[in-house]
Amino acid sequence: MRLFSTLTLAGLSILGCHAMSSMELTKNMKIGWSLGNTLDANCADTLDYSKDQTASETCWGNVKTTEGLFTALMKDGFDTFRIPTTWDGHFGEGPDYKIDSAWMKRVHEVVDYAYKNGAYVILNIHHEKWNYAFANNLEKAKTILVAIWKQIAAEFADYDEHLIFEGLNEPRKVGDPVEWTGGDSEGWDFVNQMNELFVKTIRGCSGENAKRHLMIPTYAATTQDSAINAFKLPSGDNNLIVSLHAYTPYNFALNNADGAVTTFDNPSELDSLFNLIKTKFISQNIPVIIGEFGAMSRENDAERAKWAEYYTKGAKAIGVPCVIWDNGVFEGTGERFGLIDRTTFEIKAPEVVNSLMKGIGSTGPVTSTKEETSASPQGNETNANAPPMDANANANADANANNNNAPVDLPPKSLPNELPAEVPTEIPTTDNNNNNTPSTSLPPKTLPSNDNDNNNNMPTQPALPAPPVQPEQPTEQQDSPAPSGDYLNCPKDDWNCKQSMADKCYKEVDGCWTSQGDASKCEDIVKNCNKIWQS
What we know:
Blueprint: H1 2-16, H2 22-28, E1 32-35, H3 67-75, E2 80-83, H4 101-115, E3 120-124, H5 138-155, E4 163-166, H6 185-203, E5 214-217, H7 225-230, E6 240-245, H8 250-253, H9 268-280, E7 288-293, H10 301-317, E8 322-326, H11 350-360, H12 377-384, H13 393-401, H14 495-514, H15 519-531
Parallel strand pairs: 1-2, 1-8, 2-3, 3-4, 4-5, 5-6, 6-7, 7-8
């Protein structure tokens, strides 16, 4: 009996090093923070990436990231960090689609800022133009997905369960009427196949990847019934986590047009959200992470604090960790999701952050959840060269001060149709059966604004100065005046041609918006640009 007990304990000890299931992992996680509008920024139209692959990190107005940002946030109670990363523009042509070494090194450095301090890190692929969820794009998208993720997996092969891979960010039919309404069979099938291939790809890689925890989204990462019902979790793998985004209640959290409210006095939408997640996933032993949530500032921090505590308390009650979206924007008319000054590390909305922590019952700073582990050679090298906690602080002060109009987290949405593919602008759409109430799961985000005339590197997408565009009930697309360029003559499956035409078309959109021309004309051009991918 003594021998059995000794062997059993030894076996459990070995398993404990990395054998926890994803359900157990999510129970260990407390609360997360997203490094929004930074490594996910895409300024291919305004920057020459061949001259400096890493310049895109600051092109949406945020400062260069430092290790001190993460250690400061850990002291404030955050133990998980999502690092949205756009790889588009940073890899070469097929068949290898080789990721630029300078970009990979920079991503690795930023991952290490959190990972080597004992935090959980979520690394993903974010604002990509090659993975739009259309059937005629599936095979090409599969090829690129495998190539990109094999390289990322090899780069971080020796990193333990504290590094989580998220296969796709809000995959959807960009520019289609169902883009934000829960999708359709074409979109659902695309996402399910891409999720399955992502899992298969990582599991076939070396090192810790065979058992790494992986996040996979529903269509558009939405919680709408149709998308959740169509979602297929790959079988036979206990280390998979469903990725959902929920800026709920929409009118309080995300809506930046008519219907927006400044008070949180009706928690029913959140109650419904948590009940849905519990019923569809948690009760079925399927772990979930709400990878994006937030409520933009409307000079209503007391109300946001009430919302924050209710949200995180409700999510914790069903065992779901949440990752707050922070795009570094504090002022202006865009989506103001900023929480921390990335230069001084001062929490700018302390009442909100304190309530986030109160909801999960947090009582103090986060300490490392892992013992010292050896990292890959690249990891040790990049960490050695990482800037000290306060490096670049003075140099970045001016940039941080001028970031009031920085991009507002792209992915989700405030425009009716996706704008330049480089920075998908997402706009919550309405549910056909819900009396025009936007879906609670729509991710927030518009495009980086152009209000700052002194920020020459700001993205060219049109979020501002155009007046807010109200979400519309999806209807059949109407014919719009053709853009001045002839952009719709590419062969059906010639994606290089379509990408080139899309880049040119969206430049015309940018010129329209930045010249403060007629808003309806600009919107018409956007609609026609979106048709490029459907032709």
